Amino acid sequence: KPSPDDEPFVKVGDEVKVGETVLLVEAMKTFNPIKAPNAGVVRKILVEDGQPVEFGEALLIVS
């Protein structure tokens, strides 16, 4: 979600298109949009808002 008061970009069950922004990841106080690598339906979101993540970590499942 773009800010704490906004709705998330996607939720489970949403259809996404290739290149659509699905998440934001903060790195060094900069928010980086994470885009869907493929089209499909969001099956599962694997991380919580504000949770630290590692490079290469799966963040959600789209199929």
UniProtKB/TrEMBL annotation:
Keywords: Biotin, Fatty acid biosynthesis, Fatty acid metabolism, Lipid biosynthesis, Lipid metabolism
SUPFAM superfamilies listed in its UniProt record: Single hybrid motif
The protein's annotated pathway: Lipid metabolism; fatty acid biosynthesis
One of the GO BP terms on file: fatty acid biosynthetic process
Stated role: This protein is a component of the acetyl coenzyme A carboxylase complex; first, biotin carboxylase catalyzes the carboxylation of the carrier protein and then the transcarboxylase transfers the carboxyl group to form malonyl-CoA.
Source organism per UniProt: Hellea balneolensis
Protein's recorded name: Biotin carboxyl carrier protein of acetyl-CoA carboxylase
CDD domains per record: biotinyl_domain (cd06850)
A single GO molecular function term of this UniProt record: acetyl-CoA carboxylase activity
Ranges of residues in domain Lipoyl-binding: 1-63
